[in-house]
């Protein structure tokens, strides 16, 4: 069983890591850009990590993240060591990724993927982590009708 994780989690400060523990995209890019980047990753899945800032806590509460935690889709991990165990990578990989991310969040360096908003993240805190993959959850488009409301079908 899978559930659709709210996209707003990326906006609340989410960090996407691939199965090797590396960031690979500006998490605040368009859905299309983020989805394409996720699909280009090994196994086409990723981990969404949220540092528990006040803003993240409020967003997670508003989005019902507790439900996902209750059914086991979200884990709370206290350290990068614990996150490394969940993701299945050496802690040194995560140390380097989060060091780079936090330098950008503090304004000490440019973000490698062009991210400029960091949801007030400036230090490591306990983390929420969930495994994610891109999905189509709605389509934007139109149907062409005749005046009698019948559909034009190009494949009939």
What does this structure look like?
The structure is a single chain. 33% of the residues lie in helices and 12% in strands. It is an alpha+beta fold. The protein has one domain: Succinate dehydrogenase/fumarate reductase flavoprotein, catalytic domain (Flavocytochrome C3, Chain A, domain 1, Alpha-Beta Complex), CATH 3.90.700.10. A four-stranded antiparallel β-sheet has the order 1-2-4-3, with helices on one face. The chain starts with 7 loop residues before the first helix and ends in a 24-residue tail after the last strand. InterPro entries: FAD-dep_OxRdtase_2_FAD-bd (IPR003953), FAD-oxidoreductase_2 (IPR050315), Succ_DH/fumarate_Rdtase_cat_sf (IPR027477). One of its GO terms (molecular function) is oxidoreductase activity. Residues 4-141 form the FAD-dependent oxidoreductase 2 FAD-binding domain. This is FAD-dependent oxidoreductase 2 FAD-binding domain-containing protein.
Question: Which characteristics define this entry?
Answer:
156 residues, alpha+beta, Flavocytochrome C3, Chain A, domain 1, four-stranded antiparallel β-sheet, 33% helix, Succ_DH/fumarate_Rdtase_cat_sf, FAD, flavoprotein, FAD-dependent oxidoreductase 2 FAD-binding domain-containing protein
């Amino acid at each position: 069983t899978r559930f659709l994780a709210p996209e707003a989690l990326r906006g609340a400060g989410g960090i996407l890591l691939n199965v090797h523990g590396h960031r690979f995209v500006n998490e605040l890019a368009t859905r299309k850009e983020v989805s394409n980047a996720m699909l280009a990753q090994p196994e086409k899945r990723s981990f969404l990590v949220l540092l528990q800032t006040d803003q993240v806590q409020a967003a997670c509460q508003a989005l019902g993240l507790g439900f996902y935690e209750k059914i086991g889709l979200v884990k709370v991990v206290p350290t990068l060591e614990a996150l490394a165990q969940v993701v299945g990578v050496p802690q040194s990989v995560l140390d380097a990724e989060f060091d780079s991310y936090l330098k950008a969040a503090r304004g000490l360096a440019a973000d490698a993927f062009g991210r400029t908003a960091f949801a007030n993240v400036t230090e490591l805190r306990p983390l929420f982590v969930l495994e994610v993959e891109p999905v189509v959850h709605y389509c934007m488009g139109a149907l062409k009708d005749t005046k009698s409301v019948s559909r034009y079908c190009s494949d009939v």
